[in-house]
Amino acid sequence: MANQKTAGRQNRGIKEALRKSMVSLKRSPQNIPLAALAAAFFIYSLNLSSIAKTTSRINGANMGQCEFAAMLFSILAFVVFLRTFPRRKPANKVMLGLLFFMLALLVGVDIIYISRITDALTREVNPIQVSADSQFINTAKSVVSAHVICVGITAALLVLLPFYSKAIRKINTSIEVEGNGSMGAIDISGED
User: Fold this and answer.
1) For the segment 138-147, what is each residue's pLDDT rounded down to a tens digit?
2) What is the mean pLDDT of the segment spanning 35-56?
3) From CA 60, how far away is CA 109, in angstroms rounded?
4) Domain boundaries, the chain
5) What sign results for the dihedral spanned by CA atoms 84, 86, 88, 93?
6) HEC assignment per residue over the chain
7) Distance from first CA to last CA of the chain, Å, rounded?
């Protein structure tokens, strides 16, 4: 009997946590693309050593600049994102345009970086061979490709934000209180 009460309390706690997170999401649906942008940043920054080793090993044209620009615009995109959606105000259209520009730059420098890796691996004269000690090249190529995908998902989520935010707002997050339906009207007129 005690186990059922404990399980019921835990179940209510999980439901309440889900309800609170849904209420928070209804108030700030822009947190969904922000989470995608954060995932893109963490994917790139946590694998920066493989990317740096690849840049050093291949030493292709503008690879270092692409790596630097990707980190810089990833960080700046967070700042611009937070300025784009001020609390309880409509989105700042100028900052939104700047955010899309930064996302496009991120995709552009990543595509240049991937093309430099591909060129180095497939060139006719002295191509770079990926061996056990240079496996970081494949890792860097995969990470940069995943970064492009995450940035693209972020841009798509930003474009679709007006549509899915309406759907999220329609979700019922009200709490049913027991005995609330049997309450009578309260007379506040002050007459006896």
Assistant:
1) 899 999 999 9
2) 91
3) 13
4) 30-169
5) negative
6) CHHHHHHHHHHHHHHHHHHHHHHHHHHCCCHHHHHHHHHHHHHHHHCHHHHHHHHHHHCCCCHHHHHHHHHHHHHHHHHHHHHHCCCCCCCCHHHHHHHHHHHHHHHHHHHHHHHHHHHHHHCCCCCCCCCHHHCHHHHHHHHHHHHHHHHHHHHHHHHHHHHHHHHHHCCCCCCCCCCCCCCCCCCCCCCC
7) 48
Q: Are 44 and 74 in contact (CB under 8 A)?
A: yes
For residue 133, with 0-12 CB atoms within 10 Å meaning exposed, 13-18 middle and 19 or more buried, which class applies? exposed
3-state SS, residue 56: helix
Q: Is the pTM of this model over 0.85?
A: no
- Is residue 144 within 8 A of residue 110, CB to CB? The reply is yes
